[in-house]
Protein 1
Amino acid sequence: MGNSDHTTRTLLISQFADGTLYVSRGSNENIDPAAADITSGRSQIKAFDLNNLPRGGYDYTTGGRLLGWGLRNSVGVAEHPGTGGIYSVENSVDSFFRDGVDVHEDNPGEEMNYHGTLLNNTYRGQGGNYGYPNCFAAWNATALPNSRNPRTGSSFAN
C-alpha cells in the first residue's frame, strides 16, 4: 500500500468489534482524480478482521470492509465510547482555486464524518462516497466565487 503524497496511515483497534483493525488511506496527491474510482483503494477507510487473516495478509485495495471512500486524508479515526459509532476527521485540499481565485485559506473546510458501527449496523451510508475529489465542504461560503450562496457545512463542486 504505497503512495507518494499522504503517506501516513491512521490505525485503530476497535473496542467494540473484537479483532477489528480500522485503516485509513489518503489520496496520492492534493487533487487525486484516481480516487474517484472506488476500486483504486485510495482515500478510503476500511475495517479488517484480524481474527481471520487470509494467507499472505490482506490486500488493502480489494480486501476488508469498506466504511467510506471519497475521504481525501482522514487522519483522525475514532469510535464513540458509548455506541461504537465510527467517526473520521478529513483534512481537505490545499492550494485550492475556484474560478481562478485562490480560496484555500478559508475553503474547503475540514469534515467530521460518520461511518456507522460494525455492531448491528443500520446506517445506510456505511461504505458510501463522501465526495472527494469532486465535492468539498464549504467553510467560509462567502469567500467562494460563483457559489450560489451555500451555507457553512454544505457541499460544493469545483
Protein 2
Amino acid sequence: GDERLISGTQIPLTVKEFRAQVALHHNTFTESQPLPGVLALLSHLSSATKPPIHLAVASSTTTPFFATKTSHLPSLTSHFTPLTCLFSDDADMQTKKGKPAGDIYLLAMERINSSLTADDMRQLKPEECLVFEDSIAGVAAGRAAGMRVCWVPHEGLRGVCKGMEKDVLAGKMEEVEARLLALEASAEPKVGTEKTGDGLLTGSVEGERIISDDGWAEMLGSLQDFDYARYGIRV
C-alpha cells in the first residue's frame, strides 16, 4: 500500500501527507504518458509475435484510478481485454493477497487460460510468463508466482536502490526495505553510492541490465529496443 511505497522510495511524507499530494495532483494523472518503449513493446507483443503472446494487466491500483491514468491512452489500453485486467478492487482479489504475494499474477494467468479457445495454444504455466514491473513489491510478487521478471524502475527508485538491485531481483523485499529504513535513519547518502563486498552486486551486469544470480529476473534501464530473442519471443 501507500506505506510500503513511501518506505521503499524514501519519500519524506507521512501517509496522510502523501495521499493529500496524490489528490492535489489528480489532474496530472490524466496527462500521464507511457514510458519510452512501452507502446512499441505492446504493439509487437500483441500483433507481431509467433506464436501469439497473451497479455494481461495485474496492478495494485484500483479500477477507477487506472482509468484516470489511462483513459486518454487508447493506444495503450487497446491491447488488453477487460477480462485480463486485474486490479486490487477486483471481486476475485478480495479473497487473495496483494503484492508482494504472487496471487494477482497467478489469477491473471488463470484469466488468460480461461479465455483460450481450442485454436489457441495450450494452457500457460507460471514459468512461461514474463512480468514487467516498476516496483519492488511487484518484482517480489512476480518471483513469488514463479514467473520471470523484468524490472524497469523509475530513475528515482533506481537511484535509491543503488547497490541493492540484486536483492530486489531476488524478491527479498523485506530485506531491501529494512536497509532503506536503516539508511534513512542514519542519514547515510544513498543515491550514487555503491556497496561492494557484501554480495549485493555479484552476478552479471551488462550496461543498464543487471541480472539476478538465478537468471530469472533482471533490471532494465528502459524498454526501448527490447531484446525479444532473449526471452524466446519471435517477432
